[in-house]
């Protein structure tokens, strides 16, 4: 029950994102990540459009009979498109999260300072360190996600079963999307190994955040542009709350000036 509750908490966190971004004046920090997101989405979209028919042609070789070849090719095109879209979404989110790390980490830090105070302690990291951390965590997540996604895609070839595999595939992608968003905050407090353990422990929050992230990608242009600002803001508020609850966030006690 806590797992499902945390999923809804992760989704609900998006409720106040617009207000928080505006009140802290953060929109200007999202301009370059928005551009990165748009360019990456267009590139992967063109790649998916070009490769789906090629995959169908490869699948045609599995059908050695004359009859039903056109139907099999049509099915192959659908399967090819789904495979390219699934793999394209995986690549898309990891590319934009890795490249946007130097811009998203400072945004996350400003939100954290707003929530818990400016004097909280954290590890100092440079833009290059944030970019390298983003690349490391997203390459790691990309490999893990592919290990899970490929078997799911193969199972999706089975009728009826493919209904359940579609849901499972969406949840897997949501988890790693939420993971990447949470790490913009976690990188100031944990090494990569500790971050992996923290997100795994709070996978419901990650999935909830990622569900909205993945859902926004279905909204043409607007969703692609706004997906990072809203998802990073939502994940930061929840990650900071979780850090405080687990006492991993070391906030120095206020000095008593009265005595």
Automatic annotation (TrEMBL):
Q: Where are the transmembrane segments?
A: 29-51, 71-92, 146-172, 211-232
Top-level lineage group: Bacteria
Cross-referenced InterPro entries, in alphabetical order?
CysZ-like (IPR050480), CysZ/EI24 (IPR059112)
Q: Membrane: present as a keyword of the record?
A: yes
Tell me the leader sequence span.
none
| Subcellular location(s) per record | Membrane
Tell me the keywords, alphabetical order.
Amino-acid biosynthesis, Cell inner membrane, Cell membrane, Membrane, Sulfate transport, Transmembrane, Transmembrane helix, Transport
Record carries keyword Hydrolase: no
Q: How does it sit in the membrane?
A: Multi-pass membrane protein
This chain belongs to the protein called: EI24 domain-containing protein
Write down the species: Patiriisocius hiemis
């Amino acid at each position: 029950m806590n797992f499902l509750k945390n999923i809804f908490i992760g989704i609900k966190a998006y409720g106040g994102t617009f207000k928080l971004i505006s009140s802290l004046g953060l929109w200007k920090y999202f301009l370059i990540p928005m551009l990165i997101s748009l360019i990456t989405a267009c590139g992967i979209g063109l790649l998916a459009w070009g490769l789906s028919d090629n995959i169908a042609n490869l699948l045609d070789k599995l059908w050695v009979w004359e009859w039903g070849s056109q139907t099999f090719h049509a099915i192959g095109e659908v399967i090819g498109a789904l495979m390219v879209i699934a793999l394209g979404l995986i690549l898309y989110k990891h590319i934009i999260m890795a490249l946007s790390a130097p811009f998203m980490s400072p945004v996350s830090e400003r939100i954290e300072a707003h929530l818990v105070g400016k004097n909280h302690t954290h590890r100092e990291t440079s833009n290059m360190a944030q970019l390298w951390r983003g690349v490391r965590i997203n390459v790691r997540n990309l490999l893990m996600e592919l290990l899970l996604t490929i078997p799911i895609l193969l199972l999706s070839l089975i009728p009826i079963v493919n209904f359940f595999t579609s849901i499972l595939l969406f949840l897997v992608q949501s988890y790693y999307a939420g993971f990447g968003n949470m790490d913009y905050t976690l990188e100031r407090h944990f090494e990569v190994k500790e971050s992996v353990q923290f997100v795994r422990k709070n996978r419901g929050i990650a999935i909830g955040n990622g569900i909205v992230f993945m859902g926004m990608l279905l909204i043409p242009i607007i969703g692609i542009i706004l997906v990072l600002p809203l998802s990073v803001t939502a994940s930061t508020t929840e990650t900071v709350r979780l850090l405080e609850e687990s006492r991993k966030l070391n906030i120095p006690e206020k000095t008593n000036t009265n005595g």
